[in-house]
Amino acid sequence: MIGKLGKGITKSQIWRSIFRVGIPTDNRKRALAMLGNVVLHLHPIKVKKSGIRMSYTWCMGGTAFFLFLVETITGLLLMFYYRPTVEYAYVDMLDLREAMAFGIMRELHRWGAHAMVIAVWLHMFRVFMTGSYKPPREFNWNIGVILLVLTLLLSFTGYLLPWDQLAIWAITVGSNMARATPLLGHEGPGAALLSLGGQKLIHVGSDARFALIAGRTIGGGTLIRFYVLHCVGIPLVAAFLIAVHFWRVRKDGGISGPV
Amino acid sequence: MADDETRDAPAPADERPAAPAPGAEQELRAPAGAGSEPPSAAAKPAPAKPHAPAAAASGAAPPAADRAPQPLAKKQPTPPDQSAFGPPRAAGKGAKVAAGEVTRRQFSWAAVAWVGFAAAIGGCVSAMTRFMFPNVLYEPPTNFKVGRPDDFPPGVVDTRFVDQYGVWVVNEGGRIFSLIAICTHLGCPPAWLATQNKFKCPCHGSGYYKSGINFEGPTPRPLERARVYISPDDGQIVVDKAQKFQWEMGQWEDPNSYISIA
After folding, report:
1. Cα–chain-centroid distance for residue B248?
2. For residue A23, what is the nearest residue in chain B, using CA coordinates?
3. Is there a contact between A16 and B32 if contact means CB atoms under 8 Å apart?
4. How does pLDDT run across B80-115, given as a tens digit for each residue?
5. Is-contact A49 B12, C-beta < 8 A?
6. Which residue of A has its CA nearest to B6?
7. Cis (ω within 30 of 0) for the bond into A136?
8. Within 10 Å of residue B92's Cβ, how many Cβ atoms?
9. Does the CB of A58 have a partner CB in chain B at under 8 Å?
10. What are the residue ranges in chain A where pLDDT is below 70?
């Protein structure tokens, strides 16, 4: 009876349109199952034994990706309550911590962010030490460097959102670096060269820092700008580059083996 | 059946040759599940001899063998040296176990893993669902004091509380009652037009008398009234919006729906 029902389900058009290959019982079917799935096909069909050895990979790339997923899910949940305005940001953060069921959600997001930065650095270190940046993987190394920068930018933009004194002054200090941008920062080298008829084009109200923080000092404009970058802008780019990163691993012959 | 056997074959996955390219090409283009026995069966390093007839048989009736999930219990027993659960002597011991006792072969770590995985997912989903129900609200209270009965002279509609709490307090016909400022047509906020002596909804033009009874526009029924009572602490009128009274259900005669000023 149950067997008949199960057979009826697994033979139905709905089931077969989803699970096209059936139970992957041999190598060929396993390969087809991987190839036929938009997510799984980013992963190599075959992984070398060394590729799953913890002592070789440290699983740091996978850990970083796992933490990216954790940050996405917990961040999405936090977005349901957090309002990125000067009036509400701080109290909403306090409520998320103290008054919510599962106040741990914010702590997961915060500690996950710290862990992700560490994991990404360790992943880079491992790839360097195993020489996995060498051709044909040099392109993927560059993708990885961009992903490292994006991870740090996610951390930086997220740091402002609690809107406490630590956040505001940390971003003040951090964004002050943009003053010294060559040509585009009003205190940077070459900025004085950009002038038109004696009028300076790059000043405190028109330089790179001004565009970054949407004002001369950290304020409500900075908060919403960093919020949008943190929740939408950078994650979109990062998700795309992560897909490229995985795809390149596969295309470059899987995880590199020990030399 | 032949597929099951090859899964348990001793060769590690990455050392086994994949299906030959021509066959694979053909299978990729073919509709899903249409493939029967792959042409590479003979090329596999699996012990081909004893299973050759079985392969031929499954080739004759392919779909069932392809798709029907084989229950774990019915799986062909693996050779003892392939067992991941212990030394080979486990197989010899298996014959002596008492009836009803779970042997090490029947015990499945995969089942434990799946149950654990399902529990973890279930826990996460429950936590996320609970997370969507806030513990703290920043809404005006539904229960609030509006003043002493003397503050509401007869025949006057008091509009002081409508912006914050969404109610009018009315003294009419020897009773003080509280009308909820939600149009019973589609939920817009009506306004009290003192010059025309009526409540008028801006959305679709529903009109109500001072008592809350509807007389014009599309609304099907009167406004609703909230519970009012005298606070035992200080004699102030308390409005409790959590309890509503509807005229068409005869609830306006409920003593909780008004305060008598005789």
Report:
1. 35
2. B67
3. yes
4. 444 444 444 444 444 565 666 767 777 888 999 999
5. yes
6. A26
7. yes
8. 9
9. no
10. 259
